[in-house]
Automatic annotation (TrEMBL):
It comes from Ananas comosus. Keywords: Membrane, Transmembrane, Transmembrane helix. Residues 23-206 form the Callose synthase helical domain. Pfam families: CALS1, Glucan_synthase. The chain crosses the membrane at residues 656-678, 803-819, 831-850, 934-954, 975-996, 1002-1025. Residues 303-901 form the Glycosyl transferase domain. One of its GO terms (biological process) is (1->3)-beta-D-glucan biosynthetic process. The keyword Glycoprotein does not apply. GO terms for cellular component: 1,3-beta-D-glucan synthase complex; plasma membrane. This is Callose synthase 7-like. It comes from the Eukaryota. InterPro entries: CALS1_helical, Glyco_trans_48_dom.
Amino acid sequence: SNREKDLLLVPSSSGGVSVIQWPPFLLASKIPIALNMAKDFKGTDKELIKKIERDNYMLYAVIECYESLRDILTDLFTDQHDKDLIKGICKHVESSREEQKLLSNIRMSELPQLSSRLEKLLNLLKSEHEDLESVRTPIINVLQDVMEIITQDVMANKPEILKGFQGETTDNDEERKQKYENIDLNLMANSTWMEKVVRLHLLLTVKESAINVPTNLDARRRMTFFANSLFMKMPTAPEVHEMMSFSVLTPYYKEEVLYSEDELRRKNEDGISTLFYLQKIYPDEWSNFLERIKFVPKDEDSLKEKMDDVRHWVSYRGQTLARTVRGMMYYRKALELQCSLDMKKDWVNAGGSQVSYQEQMAYAAKSVAIADIKFTYVVSCQIYGVQKASKELQEKLRYQNILNLMIKYPSLRVAYIDEKEEMVDGKSEKSYYSVLVKGGDKWDEEIYRIRLPGKPTAIGEGKPENQNHAIIFTRGEALQTIDMNQDNYLEEAFKIRNVLEEFHAKKHGTHKPTILGLREHIFTGSVSSLAWFMSNQETSFVTIGQRVLANPLRVRFHYGHPDVFDRIFHISRGGISKASKVINLSEDIFAGYNSTMRGGKVTHHEYMQVGKGRDVGMNQISLFEAKVASGNGEQTLSRDVYRLGRRFDFYRMLSFYFTTVGFYFSSMLTVLTVYVFLYGRLYLVMSGLERSILEDPRIQSNLKPLENALASQSVFQIGLLLVLPMVMEVGLEKGFRTAIGEFIIMQLELAAVFFTFQLGSKVHYYGQTILHGGAKYRATGRGFVVVHAKFAENYRLYSRSHFVKGLELMILLIVYLVYGKSYRSSNLYLFVTYTMWFLVASWLFAPFLFNPSGFEWEKTVNDWVDWKKWMGNRGGIGIAVESSWESWWEGEQGHLRSMSARGLLLEIILDLRFLIYQYGIVYHLHIAHHSRSILVYALSWLVMLTVLVVLKLVSMGRRRFGTEFQLMFRILKALLFLGFVSVMTVLFVVCGLTIGDVFASILGFMPTGWAFLLVSSYLCCYPLTRGKKRERKGKKKY
């Protein structure tokens, strides 16, 4: 707030005050305490002064308050006689202080009354008024009261000048009052004088402790980090004209630039708009914003008057291009200010004293010119030209918002790919250009146009190619890569000179760094509980994780963070973005691989931080994890990882493995271990081996120690060790009590469920990429999640990665429980399987737990209706996956169309595990009468085939007779039903079938049917792939 800003502000000049002027929050409540102390004090002057001097801040506050009041009153009066009066009073006070007669010459009991009138006077002076003359009379009246209190009440023994003044006007009281009417209200337009007024008002009025200023947690965090960073080791900053020049490059596609009014007001099914949502999660920032724009809305419609300001306020709290551009342009603002200070310092060192107005203007122009030379910001808006020509409202708005940014920030440059039809040898051909534009008066102005050999994004991934075509427009010796969802802070921008000096720091010896890693702050942590989980996870990685990777492990690379590249080194050695399709999906880390392989060095520095946004909703986070896991799968298959692994020494190779692809490989092995363990247990319980082992008398005596051992080690199965880095980092920065508290709160908010669910995403997409390749970019969308996700959407996202696998593990656990319950203790089963049940519950129910209004009955019913409709719709060409299950299924099999023979064989071998259920369960049915004959298993297959034939007959009958011969179709179904009832009756009465056997058969036959579906889908997709490849080879040969 404005008040908190004033409390934190150090005055720009001393203003004639003889003591150090501390920020007012340090002096808060000192004057009220001193007044209470003095008004009833019964001792001597010496004792009073000694009591005040015990608190240095109180002493400084008293002296500053006295001297500031003297200067304000002296400046305010225009009559020399009034000025002389103030001077005489001050002389009397100072002489009384020297002679130790303050308590006898001044009535301390009247000081609180004087303080209250001064507060009223200062309120009038610091308030904003359109017409100064309208407040002249109230100010004069209060000023006369103040002077009356000083001269009549406070002064016990009046000085000579005061007696003389009163003697001149004693006969006419009205004339005496007119002595204080000549005041200079033009001072209220003087910023320095008003600063003194505001400061004195704060000293008098702040009666409570200001230790919690500012109250906003993010402001406190930024100030705390900046203050702490000043004590960290960093190179000395050179003057601006001697620093390295650098550029910032941001790739942009078609994300939000600035939220529109319609997007802010659009409500979800619960009647919640984005604006309302942000007002509730940032209540203090919203009230401070209204205070800054000096507006009090009566209702939501009244905000239309300030909608442009509101749009910016919301956009600066989202992950928008406007926020990123504003943050990066702080570099230019910081450099201008630092350059101006450098020149003033040089002026003072040269013996100069007062700087004239013309010299100040020349310095300002020179500062702007030097800042433009040292800093360049290029935003690579790939389809800016398409958006400019588009007639679609959404794209047109994005173009207009980008144009407004260029006009607002004249030094901002936008690069884009322009596509034109040109005549070449009499034929019309498409030509592609890399174009750089800047903002003009009203429109953009073209600076450069470079012809390209073809369309870059046709041969490479979108984001890296977007960077590659624009990198030629950057300048300088260093290049900082900034994503579209990042932010910067003015106080951090002041340290960019220190960071760039790291390239030349002597501590690195002859092996200078080529990439400087910087710390990140995740600013989306307060948006939701999921965003907080991701924020804490990311914070531990970008701080303690990056710190250890850089030193001593020496295996830090580039992770899409705000790293600063040695531009000359990388442009001459392959660039900063590898862009080959699929394999370079995670293009950022390949830049680090490339730099390391070419002899570069990557360091990490924590004295500067940059803001970073993360996905805030469940589905957004899952898509992001899927993209990263797929990218790591492609890294595992890449030459870069192979070459680095071969060139590193043994210990550095291990560090490299476990901090890159090894993490995902280990996660996959963890889940595979669960599968192997449960299928092994399934074999033991079905074969009877487990029963024979546990019922052995020699084993039974050792069961209790086994249970105790399982109980002690089961604590670590929850994965508590994985959260240790996060707890350590939060403990180092905020204290270990805070760290433990945050950890407990995270567990209460089901963080363990969330991270276990995300483990499934990592394993599924990493394993799929390893087997079949085909990694692809997944757009997550970076908006605020205030909408309930329908079950059909969750089903599309999590069916294959979580629901199917969760159901498989649940069936395994149920079978293991049911068929071993008669001879196994419940404690043993619990200790062995409770973490696996937790895994199953997380994979099956997390999307509902973290879905807004996920358990509201009305939405559940609507989701069911929507899901049934989606399942029933037929697919086809042009039918979106959101509209039809069939279209979604076709898309899900996309990775199989590039499947190799090795991948096909592995998939079939893995799917054969589903046949184990049927083989084991049929021998435990009561109808089998404990027979171990192979005929029992063969008979189960006969039943399976019969069921499939019956289902096929019903399906064919529905297609052939369902419309024209409905009676025949109904008779067919009736006969099948009667046959089914007759067979089941015979089985129950004659053969000894039980209800338990029916449910057990379902458990046995369901996995077998799923195996058939999977194998048939693989076999159907594989020949198509081979046929297309043969066709392409034939065309090539022809």
